[in-house]
Each structure stands twice: as C-alpha cells, then as structure tokens.
Write a structure and sequence with these properties.
single chain, alpha/beta, Cobalt-precorrin-4 Transmethylase, domain 1, Methyltransferase, Cobalt-precorrin-4 Transmethylase, Domain 2, 2 domains, five-stranded mixed β-sheet, disordered N terminus
Length: about 250
C-alpha cells in the first residue's frame, strides 16, 4: 500500500520508502525526500542518486551501495528486492534512494511489487526526472510554443531492431514531438540511423547533456546526422540524456 508516513508503518515498524532523488545535485531532492532520509535507519542507494545528501545522516544509519556500473560491478534486481524486504522485516525504516524518478526507467515499481508480495508497507516519493531536468539545466526546453507541442521519453538501452526493443522508432521519426532518449549513449549511432532511415531529416537539431547537475556537466549540440560522431569525438559517456528535435537548437 501507499500513503502518508503515518499510515505506512507496520506493527514491527518496518517500512520501505522509494525516494526519487532527482539529478545529482542534492539541492534538487524534494523536501519530502529529505524528510524520508532524515527518518531512515537504512538507505539503499544507486550511483546516480544525490550522494551528497547522505553526508548529513547520523552515524547509525546503514548505507548500502547497490550501484549498477555499466560494464562493471552490478547488483541484481533480485538482490536489491531481497535487501529491502530483509531490512524492513527486521523493523527498520528503509529508504531506497534513486537518481531521477523511481518510476522512469528506475525499476521502482518492481521493488514496490516485491515489497507488497512480502507484506512490507511501502510508499513512493516522486523525484525530478532527468528526462526533463537534464535538458533544462542545459537551457533546452522539451516543449516550446510554436516549436514543439509535446515530447516522448524512451529508453535507448537496447538498439532499434533488437529482439527486446518495444520502441517504434519509425513512428517516433514521424511524431513531430521532441524525442528524449535515456540510457542511449552506447546505442546512439544505431538510434540516429534508424530515425533517419524512417524519414527524419538528418539536419534536425540534436543535443546530448552529460553529467547533468554535476560540476562536470557538458553539452554537445549537433544534428541528428552527425550527433553520434560528435559524441565519440568529445568522449561523452553515461550518464547522458539525448534530445532530438528543433528545441535542441534553442
């Protein structure tokens, strides 16, 4: 179940609260998220969460790093689910701290379902998603009057044509909306090629915002036709957000 902090405490006191931490800047963590952290006994965190927000926690708070590093150390989702349930069943107030928003490619609802199946009370505190905030921090609006009347957010984790892909890239090429791609740096060349093959003008403005809200934030602006090459030349890596559409030129 979800609800207020008072309504989600079990008889033993154990709860799980999913907190969307927003981009890396702890100043963009919501007030509700900060309050949940202040009450936590255990924090299970990701590498893209605003880790500086943990610096002020009392020494007794246990911090568990379950970061999933591309091509590196990784914690399985099943292990994360088990950790949440284990600590909550022990009577602890558990905060699952994520970057962005827990329900935007964050597997947050999988964790909610695992807790519900185990009888653990849960609540969800929304966060500022990088799909909007990263472009905005780079001065790029995902919508703009007279330019774009909507935006579509998709995952680029698997490339076009992959058996696991459910994205209709051809439809997106014709949509007339701003396209925001998360987790798409590794597959960017395949994505832009698929969009151009489906009819998107290769001269369409595009941009990549890397390390949003960090001191290392970088923005690369180009066209769809040469964006992938520019990203390689500039040595841009994850985390990064891709924006495709006329707004990328604003």
């Amino acid at each position: 179940m979800q609800g207020s902090p008072e309504s989600t405490r079990s008889a033993e006191g154990g709860t799980v609260t999913l907190v969307g931490g927003g981009p890396a800047d702890p100043g963009l963590l919501t007030v509700a998220g900060q309050a949940a952290l202040a009450e936590a006994d255990v924090v299970v965190t990701d590498r893209l969460a605003p880790l500086a927000a943990l610096d002020s926690l009392p020494p007794h708070v246990e911090i568990i790093d379950v970061a999933k590093i591309p091509h590196g150390r990784s914690t399985s989702q099943e292990t994360i689910n088990a950790l949440l349930v284990e600590h909550a069943r022990a009577g602890r107030r558990v905060v699952r701290l994520k970057g962005g928003d827990s329900f935007v490619f964050g597997r947050g609802h999988e964790e909610v379902e695992a807790c519900r199946e185990a009888g653990v009370p849960t609540r969800v505190i929304p966060g500022v998603t990088s799909a909007i905030s990263a472009p905005e921090l780079a001065g790029i609006p995902v919508t703009h009057r007279g330019v774009s009347q909507g935006f579509t957010v998709v995952s680029g984790h698997v490339p076009p044509g992959h058996p696991d892909s459910t994205v209709d890239w051809a439809a997106l090429a014709r949509s007339g909306t701003t396209l925001v791609v998360l987790m798409g740096i590794r597959t960017l060349a395949a994505i832009t090629a698929a969009l151009v093959d489906a009819g998107l003008d290769p001269a369409t403005p595009a941009a990549v915002v890397a390390d949003a809200a960090r001191p290392s934030q970088r923005t690369v602006r180009a066209t769809v036709g040469d964006l992938a090459a520019r990203v390689v030349a500039e040595q841009i890596g994850a985390p990064a957000v891709v924006v495709i559409g006329p707004v990328a030129a604003l």
